[in-house]
Amino acid sequence: MASPNLSLQSKDLITIGIFSTLFFTVTMVAGAFFAPNPLLTYLTPVVVAVFTGPVYLLLLAKVPKRGPTIILGVIMGLLIFITGMFWLWAVAYIVLGVIAGEISAAGRFRSLKLNVLGFCVFSLNPIASYMMIWIDQQAYKAYLVSKGTQPAYMDTMLQAAQEWMLPAMVAGTVLAALAGAAIGNRFLKKHFARAGIL
C-alpha cells in the first residue's frame, strides 16, 4: 500500500474519475425520488447521504492520499453548477471537499472514524443551497427560475419552509451520513481490513 503522502499517480486519477462519476450518478438517482417534489425536496440531502456513503469510503480506501476528496468536490461542484443548481451549492462542494480531505489526512486516510467524520462534513454540501430559503428567498427563487425551475415549484417549496426545518436537515443529513457509512463499512469491511484501515 502506497504512502498517503505520495503524490497522485495516473492510476489514482483514473480511479478518482470513475468514483466521481459513480458518486454523481448515485446522487442523481437517489435525489430523483425527492428533488422533483417541492415538498419532499427537503429530504434530498438526507437520502443522498445514505447512498453515497459506500462510494465515498471506498474511494478513500482505493486512494488514501491527499487529493481525492478535493477532486471529487470540484467535479461535483462543476456538475451541480452545470445542471442549474444554486451556485452556492457548487462552492460548498469544493470547500467541504477540502475540509473533508484535511480531516481524513489527520488519520493518514486510514482512520475509519476520521474518514466517516469527513464524509459527514462533505455530505452537508446541499445545505449551502437550501439555507438560502431562510436568508434571501427572492434571490434564491430568481436564480433557480432563471436556470429553468418552474415558478410554481419554487412558490410551493418556499411556502412549505418552516424555521425548524434547516436544523432538522443538518441533523438528519449527519445521521444519514453515519448510516450510509455504516452500510458501506459493512459491505466493504474485508477491503478496509486488507487496506489496514480497520
Beta-strand percentage? under 5%
Poorly predicted residue ranges: 1-5
User: Largest beta sheet, briefly?
Assistant: none
- Overall shape: it is globular
Radius of gyration: 17 Å
Give the class from helix and strand content and strand pairing. mainly alpha
Q: What series of H and E elements makes up the topology?
A: HHHHHHHHHH
Report the average pLDDT across residues.
Answer: 91
Helical proportion, percent range: over 70%
Q: Tell how many strands the DSSP assignment holds.
A: 0
Total of helices: 10
Report how far apart the termini are: 14 Å
Protein name: Trep_Strep domain-containing protein
Transmembrane segments: 13-35, 42-63, 69-100, 112-135, 164-184
Organism: uncultured Sporomusa sp
Keywords: Membrane, Transmembrane, Transmembrane helix
